[in-house]
Design goal:
Distance between the termini: 9 Å
Mean pLDDT: 92
Number of helices: 7
Helix content: 25-40%
Strand order of the largest sheet: 1-2-3-4-5-6-7-8
Radius of gyration: 15 Å
Largest sheet: 8 strands, parallel, barrel
CATH superfamily: Aldolase class I
Number of strands: 10
CATH class: Alpha Beta
CATH architecture: Alpha-Beta Barrel
Strand content: 15-25%
Structural class: alpha/beta
Number of domains: 1
CATH topology: TIM Barrel
Shape: globular
Low-confidence stretches: 116-122
Amino acid sequence: MRVKVCGVTRPRDARLAAKLGAWAVGMIFVPDTPRYLLPPKARRVRAAIPKGVLAVGVFKHVAASELRRVVRELRLDAVQIYGAVPRGISVRVIQAVTLDARPLRGKMVLIEPARADADRRAGRGPSARAQRKAWRTARSWRGTGARVILAGGLTPGNAAQAAAAAKPWALDVSSGVESRPGVKSAKLLRAFFAAADA
């Protein structure tokens, strides 16, 4: 199972994720969130992502000019976008969608449970009910040609269950492998990759 490790704020975590076999490493460029990266730190994290592992920038309601600037300066391989996707993006796009969205055929999409903005800012995971709904939605997109990345509340304890229930193209983990917001736990990362491959 492909794994994207998101919300990475330290070079050492980017290197470990890559060593464990991460398909992608995500850096967050959404202000007022716990894992937001300022440019100097973002450059250090980007430099730690080896060739062959996608460097993904995460954005929300971003202007096209700002998006292009960050992509260019950090040499991003892909962007993950919440909100409208600006035109003229020269790298791969992961479109975050709502659970009631129509399948985007042939697109790479992120499906995650809905949760309150306050919980999102605090980095708390979704309820079990919301999570199950997201898993059902992800599974329903099978056969549409969309490459579904499942996120939201994933941990070493439920990664195997999520993969079996939702049948996604990839799993996306962030807070579920952290000792505190933005700081990945080597032990939890290793456990997550082992569970994802179970």
